[in-house]
Design brief:
With about 210 residues, the protein is mostly helical. It has two domains: about 80 residues, Endonuclease Iii, domain 2 (Orthogonal Bundle); about 110 residues, Endonuclease III, domain 1 (Orthogonal Bundle). About 70% of the residues lie in helices and about 0% in strands. α3 packs antiparallel against α4, α9 packs across α10 and α11 packs across α13. The relative contact order is 0.14.
């Protein structure tokens, strides 16, 4: 696995895309509340669905302006039009997050411990579990976290590092797998949140976010 990852990391085309994503994530951290809300809504939307579906929806929400000023119903209608699977519940989560985005931004910025930062998110923002909290933090330029989704699990299974998990990961199991990914990231001298992009590419042939 290390050998294969090294080969991908030496692919100049892939590296350039991932380096660009890394810069984008760091820039997000210093963005305003609209930037933070956009990334937070995206991470709420991709829970238990595809990244492409989430991207389609967040583009529709931002283009229409409903992400920033629409009612719960407005957001739900945009999600329905976009073919989203869970329009009502996720619209409620996004609307509530919008009302708390200043508090969320301040809490994340003042919390120095990575684990406390993530725990605060998953306990205080509806729609975020440990994976979604990790995803959001990575997209805001905090690279201490592994985003363990089905694509990452598929790669780990392929190399015999773990079996495909048949149930939703418990927090304990998530942290065990994250520890393994951090060990791999140390060997490759790359942050866990950026290694995630390379692992995702290994399974999908794409680099999204």
């Amino acid at each position: 696995m290390i050998q294969d990852l090294n080969a991908i990391m030496m692919n100049s085309e892939v590296k350039e895309i991932i380096d660009s994503r890394r810069k984008e994530f760091i820039k997000n951290r210093f963005g305003d509340e609209r930037v933070w809300l956009t990334e937070l809504a995206y991470c709420i939307l991709v829970a238990n669905t595809s990244a492409k579906s989430g991207l389609k929806c967040i583009e529709a929400l931002t283009k229409s302006g409903k992400l920033f000023n629409g009612s719960t119903k407005d957001i739900e209608e945009i999600l329905k039009i976009s073919g989203y699977r869970y329009p009502r519940k996720r619209a409620e989560y996004i609307f509530e997050a919008r009302g708390k985005i200043k508090e969320i931004k301040e809490a994340i910025e003042k919390t120095l411990d990575p684990n406390e930062r993530r725990d605060w998110l998953r306990r205080n923002v509806k729609g975020l579990g440990i994976k979604e909290s990790s995803h959001f933090l990575r997209n805001m330029g905090y690279f201490d976290y592994a985003i363990i989704d089905r694509h990452i699990l598929k790669v780990l299974s392929k190399y015999g590092i773990t079996k495909i998990e048949q149930r939703k990961l418990t927090i304990k199991r998530y942290l065990e797998l994250e520890k393994l990914i951090k060990e791999i990231s140390m060997k490759l001298n790359v942050e866990p949140g950026i290694l995630d992009l390379y692992l995702w590419y290994m399974d999908t042939g794409e680099v999204l976010k």
